[in-house]
Design a protein that fits this description.
This protein has about 70 residues and is α+β, with helices and mostly antiparallel strands. The protein contains 1 helix and 5 strands. A hairpin with a 2-residue loop joins strand 1 and strand 2.
């Protein structure tokens, strides 16, 4: 399943799926380079990898800016 990291709070990453459900993920499980706006793939065994590409992260970041800075 794919998730976008919505925000980091303390030792957890709060990740949103396509149904807009939030899942709390231990920050220690995040792959190197993951941060707010990163797209994650979590496999059936619980493995977490970065998905997508940097261009997608940039586009999502711009959309978030437009949404919250109206």
């Amino acid at each position: 399943m794919r998730y976008v990291i919505d925000r980091i709070e303390g030792g957890f990453a709060l990740c949103e799926d396509s149904r807009r459900q939030i899942t709390k993920l231990d920050r220690a499980r995040l792959p190197a380079g993951a941060g707010e706006g990163s797209l994650l793939e979590i496999d059936a065994d619980g493995g977490v990898t970065l998905a997508g590409n940097p261009e997608l992260k940039t586009r999502l970041g711009r959309k978030m800016e437009r949404l919250f800075n109206r």
